[in-house]
Write a structure and sequence with these properties.
Shape of chain A: globular
Radius of gyration of chain A: 13 Å
Helix content of chain B: under 10%
Order of helices and strands of chain B: EEEEEEEEEEEE
Largest sheet of chain B: 6 strands, mixed
Helix content of chain A: under 10%
Order of helices and strands of chain A: EEEEEEEEEEE
Strand content of chain B: over 45%
Number of helices of chain A: 0
Distance between the termini of chain B: 41 Å
Number of strands of chain A: 11
Oligomer: heterodimer
Chain lengths: ~120, ~110
Amino acid sequence: NAGVTQTPKFQVLKTGQSMTLQCAQDMNHNSMYWYRQDPGMGLRLIYYSASEGTTDKGEVPNGYNVSRLNKREFSLRLESAAPSQTSVYFCASSELPSSYNSPLHFGNGTRLTVT
Amino acid sequence: GNSVTQMEGPVTLSEEAFLTINCTYTATGYPSLFWYVQYPGEGLQLLLKATKADDKGSNKGFEATYRKETTSFHLEKGSVQVSDSAVYFCALRRGGGATNKLIFGTGTLLAVQP
C-alpha cells in the first residue's frame, strides 16, 4: 500500500546545479501536485497536473519545470538551483481534478538544501 | 483573493487538556474546508473536512464546524493525547468547479506533554 512515493528523501545541491525530484502514485489518481513547505509560509503550490497530458502553474512556478510522464508519475525539475529553493518539497495526488471534495494524498517529502 | 489564517503556534498542552486551533478564511463563492495533520517526518494527511455551511467534520475525536457567518473553521478536541503532537493545517478549496487546488494556512504546531 505505497500511496505516493517521492525520491530522493534528502538532497544537497550547489548553486547552479540541476536535479529532478521524482514522484509516483499507485492509486490511479488523475491529478498530481507539487508543493513546497517553508517555515511560516505553509504549503505553496508550485505546479499541478489536473490530468495526464496537462500541466499548469501554481503560485510559485519560477525556477521549476514539471513533466507528467504518465498517469502515475509527475516529476519536478530545478534547472539551475538557487539558495531560495532550499525547502521541503511535497508531491500529492487526488482522484478527481474538478471535485472539491476529493482529498489530497501526500508523499513524505524531499528535503532539499541549496548551498 | 482566497486565503486562510491560522493561529500561530506552538500550542503546548498537557495530556487530556482541551484543544482549540483557530482558523478563519477569505474566499469567493462557497469553498470546502479541510484540516490536514502532519506528523513528524511525514507528509500531510486529511484529518477532516466540511463542504457546506453548518457542516461538522469529525475524525479521531477532532471536530470542526463550518461557520459561514464568521468565516471560521476552528479545530477542537476534548482531550488531547501525546500522540496528537503534530502540525495542523487548515485549508480551503473554493467551489464553482475550479480545479482541485488547495490553499493552506501556515500551520500550527501542537505539542502535548505527558
